Each structure stands twice: as structure tokens, then as C-alpha cells.
Amino acid sequence: MNNIQKYYIYSVLWSIITLVTSGSVAQTFLLEYGFSEENVTVFVSVMQIIQVLTIFLFSKGSDSVKSVVKTMARAHILDIPLCLFFLALCFLPFTEIPPVYIVLLLVGGVYSISVGINNVLVYKLPYHIMDMRFYGKYISISSALVGIVSVIFSIVSHFAQSAFGFMPAMRGIYILTVVIWAVFLLVTFSMKEEKVKMPEKSKEKINLFKYKPFITLVLPNVLRGFCLGIVSMAITIGYYTELIDGVSANYVIIITNALTIFGSFAFSKIARYMRDKNIILLCSIVLAALLPIMTVFGTGAFLVVYSVIYFFLIILNNIVPVTVTKIIDYKVAGQYSAGRMLLNTLGTSLAGFLCVPMFKTLGVIPTLALSGGMQLISGIGYYIVLVGIEKKKKQEGAVV
Fold first, then answer.
1. End-to-end CA distance of the chain
2. Do 363 and 357 touch, CB atoms closer than 8 A?
3. Angle, to 10 degrees, between the axis of helix 98-121 and the axis of helix 333-361?
4. pLDDT tens for residues 57-82?
5. How many Å is the maximal CA-CA distance in the chain?
6. Please, which of 65, 69, 291, 300 could form a disulfide with 372 given CB 3.0 to 4.6 Å?
7. Model pLDDT, residue 171
8. CB-based contacts of 89: which residues, under 8 Å, 6+ apart?
9. Homologous superfamily of 3-195+206-395 in CATH?
10. What is the rounded distance in angstroms from the CA atom of residue 171 to the CA atom of residue 375?
11. Rounded CA gap, 49 and 156, in Å?
12. pTM for the whole thing?
């Protein structure tokens, strides 16, 4: 297999691992197991905070990493404790004894170190394994494959739960997760750093906090992270508002994964006809308009509105990293990506910590409206910055 094929496999397997260890499947499992909504949001937030700290500490030396592939692969060894702990929970009865929850937080923290390192290097990885002229194409195909496999995974999971019961099905899922992790690690280690047409690194040292493309997007990245964090808690929000249960939670998971396909496909088409700044602004407007009404009209409406929100969120998640590769220099790629992910993850972790407390004090609808407003401000911020960069690029004979 060539590097591109391995990159696709890497993306697909990593998406499954994150789905069942920190994503919607993990949220559903923990809620059905017996943990409270607040326990789950704190667990997710603790992991995200550790990701932020890891990103901050690792980013300083990220551009001097000699082997991006090997560094990422070694970091992913840290994924296994959380996978094994989830598997162990499948065989243990629920207990409110604090040590059990503390162990969950600890293994989640170890896993988050891996995720933090991955978040720093994942946007630098393409420079080392592929021709960056086709990066947009590769990421679209990768996202579509992730969606297809995730949908199949979710549907099989749903039928397994119906046939064998929730906990027996989860035992099978987490046994499979351990196997997937082993294959994932082998594929990651096997990627070759060919450095295809990679720009020469400048010896000039860049102070990221004086680098305009970074400073001007600090607030937009934090606000985008907060909104993303709220949307990623859809299942927990559904449980809190009593709009969904274990069965309808599976529908949320299937919808989420199916829309990854359609959103990525739509992105590949829309990107041909719309400028990056317009796509980002459009997605932000839709999220701001629909988030406040997500929990207003019952379970069916919740699923429909969430579907539209997630569709545009996928487009937004696709366009931002592509846009970044167009506006920054390679010499700061790792540092910039680390900084952006740090800000984004900071916003996401704040959303996790504040989600339930804000529901209790402000109410669910005002909290969702506030989150949508944050994304709108973020989108406007990106739009203004990209307009300025576009003018500069036009003078140089290129358009963002």
C-alpha cells in the first residue's frame, strides 16, 4: 500500500477509536452504565484540558520533530489503557465508589496525551506523506471513508444491541476496539515519510504570538471550539432534556456518521464554487440559527435539527484546515496547528465543564443560543481575516 492508502486507513481506524473512547458511543455507554450527565461532561472536559496542556507543552518543539510518523505512532501506544478500561467496565456492575470514576479520569488523561500529540502533528503529517496540491481532495475522500465505515459500524452496533442486549454488545465492541487499535498502530508505524514536494524550512524563528494569521484568529478559534463542544455533547444534552434514551441515542450516532459522508461530499462540491470565507460564514449562520431550537419541539424535531446542524458542522470542519494550509507558511505549520488546536480544544473543554451548570442556571435553550452566537462571531472573525488575506493574495496573483 502507498502512503495515501495508509492515510485513509489511519483516518478510518482512528475515527472508530475516538468514537468508542471519547465520542458519542462512549457518552452513551457511560450514561447507560450509570454515570450521571455531569460525570460524563466532566470526564470529557478533563480529557480535553489535558489535551490542551499537552498541545501547549508539545507545540514548542513540534517543528523540530525528526520523524512525524514515528512520533505519532509511539504516542498512540497510550490509547490502550482507556480501551481496556472500557472493556473492563463491560464486565463490572455499576458502583458509585469514587475510585472507579477516578480511574476513569486517569486513563482518560493518559489517552488525552496521545490525542494532544496527534492534534499537533496531524496537520503537519500531510506535508511529509503526500503532494499538498491535492490535500483538499485527499481530506475529502478520507472524511467520506470515515463516514461510510462509521455508519456501518453504528448500524452493526445498533443491531447487535437489539439482538444481544446493550452490555453484551458493548463487550463485543470494546474487544473489537482493542483489535482495531493494534491494526491502527501497525499501519501508523508503516507509513513512510517521503516528504513529497515539501517546502524548504526557513532558519528564521517565528514568534507565534507576533504572527498575524494566528493572533487575529485567537478569539474565533476559542469560540468555535466552545460551539463544537456543545454540539459534540448532543447525546448528553438529549439525555438531560429527556428527549432521547438508549435506542434514540443510536439514531444520533448513525445520523452523525452518515452526515460525515454527505457533509464531506457536499464540501468537495461546494468548495469548487464558493470561496473559503463564504463557506465558513454560511455554516456559522446556520449553526447560530438552528442551535436554539434543537430541543424545543420533541424527539423527532431534535433529530432533524441536529442532523442539519451536524451537516454544516462537517463542512465547517473540512474547510478550516484546508484554509489554514493556504494562509500560513510551512515553517510554522506545526507551531500554528498546535496553537490553533490548543485554542479550539480550550473552547471545547470549557463547553464540557460549563454545559450542565449553564443548563441549570441559564436554561437549555439560552445556552444553545449563546453557543450558536459564539460560532457566528467566530465565522465573522474568519471572514474578516480571510478578506484581508484575499486582497493580499490577489496582489500576488493568487486567490484564497
1. 33
2. no
3. 140
4. 876 666 666 777 888 889 899 999 99
5. 66
6. 291
7. 92
8. 29, 33
9. MFS general substrate transporter like domains (1.20.1250.20)
10. 38
11. 32
12. 0.72
Angle between helices 299-327 and 333-361 (to 10 degrees): 160
From CA 276, how far away is CA 199, in angstroms rounded?
23
Closest CA to 368 of 357, 377, 380, 355: 355
Reported as half-sphere exposure (CB side, CA atoms, 13 A), residue 179 has a value of 6
> Tens of pLDDT along 182-194?
999 998 888 887 6
Q: What is the 3-state secondary structure (H, E, C) of the chain?
A: CCHHHHHHHHHHHHHHHHHHHCCHHHHHHHHHHCCCHHHHHHHHHHHHHHHHHHHHHHHCCHHHCCCHHHHHHHHHHHHHHHHHHHHHHCCCCCCCCHHHHHHHHHHHHHHHHHHHHHHHHCCCHHHHHCCHHHHHHHHHHHHHHHHHHHHHHHHHHHHHHHHHCHHHHHHHHHHHHHHHHHHHHHHHHHCCCCCCCCCCCCCCCCCHHHCHHHHCCHHHHHHHHHHHHHHHCHHHHHHHCCCCCHHHHHHHHHHHHHHHHHHHHHHHHHHHHCCHHHHHHHHHHHHHHHHHHCCCCCHHHHHHHHHHHHHHHHHHHHHHHHHHHHHCCHHHHHHHHHHHHHHHHHHHHHHHHHHHHHHHHCCHHHHHHHHHHHHHHHHHHHHHHHHHHHHHHHHCCCCC
Give the three cell numbers for residue 287. 449553526
CA-CA distance, 383 to 87, in Å (whole number)? Answer: 45
**Cell numbers that stand for 266 in this block:** 457536499
> In which band, very low, low, confident or very high, does the pLDDT at 376 lie, cut at 50, 70 and 90?
very high
| Cα 347 from chain centre | 12
Total Cβ atoms within 10 A of residue 209: 9
User: Dihedral of CA 91/93/108/110: which sign?
Assistant: negative
Cell numbers of 294, please? 434543537
The values of phi and psi at residue 131, to 5°, are -80, 115
